[in-house]
Amino acid sequence: FCATLGTTPCCSFDKLLELGPVCNKENIWMHIDAAYAGSAFICPEFRHLLNGVEFADSFNFNPHKWLLVNFDCSAMWVKKRSDLTGAFKLEPLYLQHHHQESGLVTDYRHWQIPLGRRFRSLKLWFVLRMYGVRGLQEHIRKHVRLSHQFEHLVLQDERFEICAEVVLGLVCFRLKGSNELNKALLKSINEAKKIHLVPCHLREKFVLRFAICSRTVESTHVKFAWQHISQLATDLLKTWEQNHHQQ
Hints:
This protein is of the alpha/beta class. The protein has six helices and eight strands; from the N terminus they run βαββαβααββαββα.
């Protein structure tokens, strides 16, 4: 069973405290996918979103998504590593060595299907050394502040609506109106090539997603993006109304 902390479309959070006991009782492996949101848990104020993690058998997040590590870098934890090694361990004579039963060597070829694996640890280590805990926490908090700044700008414009609670660095919003209207707005935004947005569907509604994710993003960029979106919306609505009157 896979529970998700920070879903891709709208960054929603499954309730681990409700799902976990059911999985444990029924002897179902519970994996937690926290690909994007997992990085935020370095901040104490977001750790409540992890409540119930003790029920999990495995947990995965991607430092390359929000922890300033270059692509790709995925960190996985397992509660009982013998569950993995028991499934994947192969011991042909030509791969055996004197230290394998000593407990001093962690041989990751027993944790996966391939014999070899890329060495991603060093680039993560460099980021941790360069930024430190405080630097990484400030990076996350800054993005969250900027997402709430964008949310505030959207809420000031009565033509728009917020479509999901803003928890971390993602704002889901749309023009009040049809899906076709919002598809047209997204098309005009992305064709202008000043910013790029990726959409999603929420409860049958076509929704635009504004994701704060650049290392160098500042408040001025958020203001610029909103002014750009607002102007394109104004232009689109004029055209939309003219076409509607003509029909």
